[in-house]
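protien #1 (seq + structre)
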Amino acid sequence: MQHARAVAMSLFDIYSEMADEDQAVALASLKTVDPSVHDALVQLLVTDALAHVLDSPPWHGLATPTLSMDELGREDPGPTDGALR
């Protein structure tokens, strides 16, 4: 099984960059040649396709705290027309 996983890992980049139709044909051919490598490769491809927590930067999805003017140390909220001072 370790050999099959090693071979699957060496094939992963090639198969993951294929168009869906080409990948399906290549996987079907691989299944007839070496079913254990096919199964290991499919497992890698499926795992890669799933959404993962680390797919986005950790700061995405965090709430940004809103500070009051007192907390900012400003008394004047600034211009109301959106212009910078």
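ok now protien #2
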Amino acid sequence: MLNLELKLSREGDDYVRKIQTSILISLLLGTVLTFSTGITAFAADYNDISDSVWYRTAVDFMTEESLMGGTGAGDFEPETPMSRAMLVTVLHRIEGSPEAGNGGFSDVPGGSYYASAVAWAEANRIVTGVDERRFSPFSLITREQFATILYRYAEAKSYDISAYTTLDGYTDSSEVSAYAKTAMHWMVGTQNLQGSGGKLLPSDPVTRAQAATMLMRFLDNISIEESAKPTASASLTEPEHPAATIPAQSEENTMINMNITVGNATFKAKMNDNETIRALITQMPMTVNMSELNGQEKYYLFQSGLPVASTEAPATIHSGEIMVWSSNSLVLFYNTFSNSYGGYTKLGYIEDISGLTAALGTGAVQVTFSIND
């Protein structure tokens, strides 16, 4: 891994970044390779997993159980984000990959590697989709979505879901979406999900390493007793469970839909409903010339800053994420890399990043942001 440090200027503002060059496989290709059959490798066999990393045991466990595998070229890609299709496929494998026929989502093509898994999860009320017709298989799954889907699976399997821990100790507990609150209380209560720096980070995408770890904890601590095969009516006949109404809600019902257009390509994005986004919406539709930086992002400087409640220093920035830096710089990332710099406010993410890098190109580019009504 080659690390370079450059000192650049953003129209007078000193802006220093660590640039970490790496060969990244596209998310779409990664998902297909990840869930191919015949998983036989172990963590020791992956080029990108050392003996000392905190998730090594989890990767070994998930690989040994043939639930997750490598992405190709001898890599596991632990920092690559998990997609919604990936998680549902793992749960389907845990269940023994039962046949499920065709589901009702318009964006899940028959014959795709995840089609049967999504149909099974839909039939058993484990997933509901991002709206009535779409599952959005290649969208990055957030921590609160991960908790919600795992909670529904545990409930459908009649596992003990009584664990409960208050979220008051986390500084961003108010950012947990209404549909995910019960699941997040349970997930933290079982210690399957642990915060970072006093935060839950509910809207952050889940990496493959994090997913492997949480799923291993789940299988070790929750799935102890074998129970009946899940049925669609399981949660509906147990009114004492406060989350019995969760399946009726969209997994992204507090997100704002946005279109990001580059040339002839339009990318659909999900944006957090916060004061920064609400201020940005007042300027839309908005067409701006975004400058290139470091071969991993495009940015645009506003004349005046946007309102920002808090900032953070995300350890990993993912391709397709949209953020504001230092209140006045709108940033669209098209590469995934490790980060150590603060001052970021997360706005949202592009659902399907296929073709994003090619559309943005290598230099400055005109980008239009608009609300998708």
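The first strand starts at residue 2 and ends at 10.
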